[in-house]
Specification:
It is built from six helices and 13 strands. It is an alpha+beta fold.
């Protein structure tokens, strides 16, 4: 199981009652606290994170816009940050941006689509906000890969640094946001224009 380092400014809920939450219990908890950003670790700890600031939200929105525009012409299903994925290791995580191939989306029943999606996306983007700690996000990116993500971008808009995670490949660091990141081969033809994400 994956253990995250200490969270900065996040509230971590632990204990037997929390650990005993079923997936439905946790879904209901999230619905009743829909103004909060909430995830659950593989150890069933509940992480309540502070809302992000304007810069982080704008960067996330633009990354989603670019992906959604590509997906409209190339297929698949893009998601923004309010979706939750129930992963094979038991964690329920919500990336800032994500994408599923059409076949994966169509494999889910109508009932499954109404709650946390019991599937791992092929592609994720995580954007560091000022309240996030980089080691925590890097651990989260490794967890995404361990659960089946094929390609992931971790973006730090403050330092204009991108970390590219690809299944079976060492992590690559890309410095400077005056360029694009390729989605190949997972997203053929997709290029994330980092210039649009600059503050």
């Amino acid at each position: 199981m994956t253990h995250f380092p200490d969270f900065a400014e996040a509230t971590v809920l632990r204990g037997a009652l929390i650990a005993g939450f079923s997936d439905d219990d946790f879904f209901q908890f999230c619905q009743e606290n829909d103004s909060a950003r909430i995830e659950r670790t593989a150890d069933h700890e509940i992480i309540i994170m502070p809302p992000v600031g304007g810069d982080s939200s704008a960067a996330s929105g633009d990354a989603y816009f670019q992906l959604a525009l590509w997906s409209r012409h190339n297929g698949g299903r893009p998601f923004e940050s309010s979706v939750g994925f129930r992963l094979p290791d038991g964690a329920i995580l919500s990336p800032d941006v994500s994408w599923l191939p059409t076949a994966a989306w169509e494999s889910l029943t109508a009932q499954q689509r109404q709650k946390f999606l019991p599937i791992c996306p092929d592609f994720v983007v995580e954007i560091k906000s000022p309240s996030d700690r980089l080691p925590v996000l890097q651990t989260k990116m490794e967890q995404w890969l361990q659960n089946g993500v094929r390609l992931g971008f971790l973006l730090n808009t403050e330092t204009e640094t991108a970390y590219v995670y690809a299944a079976g490949q060492p992590m690559q660091t890309v410095q400077g946001f005056d360029q694009e990141l390729s989605g190949e081969p997972v997203l053929p033809g997709f290029r994330l224009d980092l210039r649009e994400l600059k503050s």
